Amino acid sequence: MPELPEVETVRDGLDRLVVGAVVRDVEVFREYSVRRHDGGPGSFRDQLAGRRLSAAVRRGKFLWLPLEEAATVQPVQPVQPEPVEAYPAAALLAHLGMSGQLLVRGAVLSGEQTPTAVLGDEPGRATAADDWRHPHLRVRLHLTGAPSGARYLDFVDQRTFGHLSVQDLVHDHVPTRGSATPPSAVPAGHGSDLPLLPEPVAHIARDLLDPNLDLDDLVRRVRRRRTQVKRALLDQTVLSGVGNIYADEALWRARVHWARQTDKLRVADVRRVLDSAAEVMREALAQGGTSFDELYVNVNGQSGYFDRSLAVYGRENEECRRCGALVRRDAFMNRSSFSCPVCQPAPRTRTP
DNA sequence: CATGTTTCCTGTCTGC
DNA sequence: TGCAGACAGGAAACAT
């Protein structure tokens, strides 16, 4: 799945290849993929055409490109009063769901940039400025004026849990510790202290790679909850960016069972779980830049390039890399939890 | 209000 | 060989 490290890799690629480009046209092949856009495909197209993609920003697994009016390519529409804010008032918001990809086509890559390592394009088709349409192509943005020469930004999504929309930028609904603070990847030169987020992201908590995350506060908020620790890890309003895979990996590293109650965990345990989650995601991100090119596109149910490094996820009845016990799998929230029965002893009262 | 459960979707895999 | 059912999962929507 594209989790935080994968989304960050994509964000970085968009930053280098499509930021600065102007959207010339939009094709929506699957209406469902823009279901969260208010107004439908026609409105989606209208709100993008003629706008410049001015930055690439991420929080958790949400990714967005703030929009600016393009001075050169003005769409034919009535003149509207300019917003006073210097920061863009709207953004193209993307969530990759579990199988979404953003593929840049036609970019001329320079130097060290490996074509296929940038945005998960397919080997052999990576550099060509072709019009080839992926079987799961849902939305295509036609670009012009990209410094990289990128012609298309393709949204490809097999299982269609991902989505695109144009959203107003609003102030953070859940500022950490009282004061409004900026999102994690605020573009340079855009007033980095302006805490503007797409509306659907405004209630999403900061992620573990956010330099402005208050870790002590997060520990307190986790322990204040009365639920299983893994539920807390997956809760958007507590912490963003952690999915089922990295939750299991973090808990294994921290030697904490997924069903432990948050309000009974010690501060040191919670801190260790969070540190482990940050660590495993940083490692995945580090690998994401290099070795995933031939595998990253294969997000059809497998975790892809990071597979080899996984300690427990998807390894039912295989040996724990630490103690050799057989990894167990439990049903959890209509999915699975993987854990080591020895390293991560289950709490007494709750026995699934 | 806080927490738990269901639902959306498509392609692959398993078992009968 | 076919085909129903299980499975994968983020997060909104709904339920308790």
From TrEMBL:
Requisite cofactors: Zn(2+)
CDD domains (alphabetical): EcFpg-like_N
Catalytic activity: Hydrolysis of DNA containing ring-opened 7-methylguanine residues, releasing 2,6-diamino-4-hydroxy-5-(N-methyl)formamidopyrimidine; 2'-deoxyribonucleotide-(2'-deoxyribose 5'-phosphate)-2'-deoxyribonucleotide-DNA = a 3'-end 2'-deoxyribonucleotide-(2,3-dehydro-2,3-deoxyribose 5'-phosphate)-DNA + a 5'-end 5'-phospho-2'-deoxyribonucleoside-DNA + H(+)
An example molecular function term from Gene Ontology annotations: class I DNA-(apurinic or apyrimidinic site) endonuclease activity
Entry keyword annotation includes Transmembrane helix: no
Record-annotated FPG-type domain positions: 311-345
Residue ranges constituting the Formamidopyrimidine-DNA glycosylase catalytic domain according to the UniProt record: 2-162
EC number: 3.2.2.23, 4.2.99.18
Keyword terms: DNA damage, DNA repair, DNA-binding, Glycosidase, Hydrolase, Lyase, Metal-binding, Multifunctional enzyme, Zinc, Zinc-finger
Subunit structure: Monomer.
NCBIfam families per record: PRK01103.1
Family to which this protein belongs: Belongs to the FPG family.
Protein name: Bifunctional DNA-formamidopyrimidine glycosylase/DNA-(Apurinic or apyrimidinic site) lyase
Organism field: Promicromonospora aerolata
